[in-house]
Amino acid sequence: MALAAIIGANTGYLLLAFLPPVLWLLFYLREDRHPEPKRLLLATFIGGMAAAVIAVVAEIAILGQSGLLIFDGRAIPMALMAFLVIALIEEYVKYLPVKFLIEKRGEFDEPVDAMIYMMTAALGFAALENALFLLPILHTSVPAGIAVTVNRFLGANLLHALSSGIVGFFLSRAWFHPHRRHFIALGIVAASVLHALFNTLILIREDVAQGTWYLILLLGVMSMMVLIDFERLKKKSK
After folding, report:
1. pLDDT tens track for 2-12
2. Where would you find the membrane-spanning parts of this chain (predicted)?
3. CA dihedral defined by 236, 120, 189, 177, rounded to 10 degrees?
């Protein structure tokens, strides 16, 4: 009985951790006029989960125990670390499932597909990140875990989808650009800058007046960017 209760509780916690990214995924998939094959979306989502594991390993390997990035024997402040480590690594590894699983497939045949698959990978990444982040909290306090889940739904999970959506837009443009790799790299850097800004605002919001409003403004601007890019690519995909 005790084992069954433990398994049941952990299953419920995992479902709670996966629910926010899945809701965002369903929201964005509704915007696709020509739905992608479910098997490819599932493979990309799982690939995003694997990318989260890669990111965790890379971040642990690079970060010092002091919470600072150690480079050339010197400690770099936390705000810069947010860009150099967390943002850049995460934006790059979220691109890898699309690069290795999707780009060469025949179903990847419309400009808007790049944004769809990138956001799918990002939400798979967010799902596993939620599980790693939330399970310890939920085991301690279910109400606290639910509150954090809601915050991540509106914050970190949305950020992952939007930043990868921006990379997806650059990936779609790379089809028509002679220096393809440079164009994709530009998208990853652009997304990393916005991601790093979000991370930095999270770190300092307790010390900066109206810090939460700055976060809302940033996510609002990113949402508009992704919406406009999505509509532009949908017109090209007709």
Report:
1. 434 444 556 77
2. 6-28, 40-63, 75-93, 114-138, 158-176, 183-205, 211-230
3. -30
